[in-house]
Amino acid sequence: MSRQPKYQTVTVRVPGTSANLGAGFDTLGLALNIWNRVTFRWGGPPQVTVHGEGANELETDQSNLMYKAAASLLDIYGTKNAELNIEAWQEIPLARGLGSSSAAIVSGIFGANALLGFPADLTELLKLAVKLEGHPDNVAPALIGGMTVALTEGETAFAAPITVPDDLQFVVLIPDISLSTQKARSVLEPVVPRQDAVFNIGRAALFVAGIATNRPEYLRIATQDRLHQDARQKVFPAMKPIFKNAIAAGAKGVFLSGAGPCVVAITTRSENRAQTIGYEMADAADKSRIGGTFRVLDIAKTGAQTIALGIED
To answer: What is the per-residue DSSP string for 170-224?
Structure first.
């Protein structure tokens, strides 16, 4: 049976995310306090309008990723060939490793679900988001917020939250260059040595333990990686100098954000070193001739949210 819309217009917001967090390749992720806000209006003609990041770059019709994600959820509930008008105000930069595609997917399915009166629960939304994205590390924190361990078993997606100490801050270096996930994945080896797998398992576990027990001194070791970061330096050679400057400036740990090229350093609010770390990371980017800016972000404790619902005459 086709489900009819309960609301004519909804507005949602979805946070940016950072995935992998060093050793937790394709499993660890966190939501950051940087947001896209999207309004969905029922009825045609089909159109997507983007303000801010991605304006004049992203598709403005049904081929837009937000539109396709929304259509996927509407199809599940029998509302086929529905026409939507979508308007987005975007803060998350594109192709930088801060989850722009995951935010598009999550905003699409979350907004469409709200239009229909919220028929899908969080478990169903996560399953669809993972199906559309291909892996759960970004979409899980985008939906749930905070830090998550996420994985799939068959067609089922699991996401377990990790409580993050309030003292932690995240210094994000945003290079002036972009890097597609496809290109960043193309340099990865299909098979890894057992010792590298063991290296990462231990550090991913230590990372979770360090966060959960508020032991930030573990994070310098826990953010080390042998599965993806060294390989990705081939397409992003500025990574290691940026890492080096972050640690020298007092960062507790540092890692490539998702597929990059953003780099995230972890610090503590109480030590008040975030600005120094950010300036040193930006200096390394400048000396590597790529340039970049930095932002000091807190974790987003909530994920996707509905912030307005409307029934129009």
So the answer is: EEEEEESS---HHHHHHTS-SS--HHHHHHHHHHHHHHHHHHHTT-GGGHHHHT-
Whether the predicted pLDDT of 204 surpasses 80: yes
The whole-model pTM stands at 0.94
265 forms bridges with which residues in the sheet? 171, 254
Report pLDDT digits (tens) over 277-307: 999 999 999 999 999 999 999 999 999 999 8
Cα dihedral 200, 206, 209, 215, rounded to 10, equals: -140
Which residue is listed with tokens 């983007």? 50
Tell me what pLDDT residue 2 has: 67
Closest of 153, 98, 112 to residue 130, by C-alpha: 153
Q: Are 189 and 234 within one domain?
A: yes
Rounded Cα distance between 284 and 292, Å, is: 9
CATH code for position 147: 3.30.230.10
Asked whether 47 and 122 are in contact (CB, 8 A), the reply is no
The domain that holds 252 is classified in CATH as 3.30.70.890
92-124 pLDDT, tens digit each: 999 899 999 999 999 999 999 999 999 999 999
Claim to verify: residue 58 and residue 34 sit in the same structural domain: yes
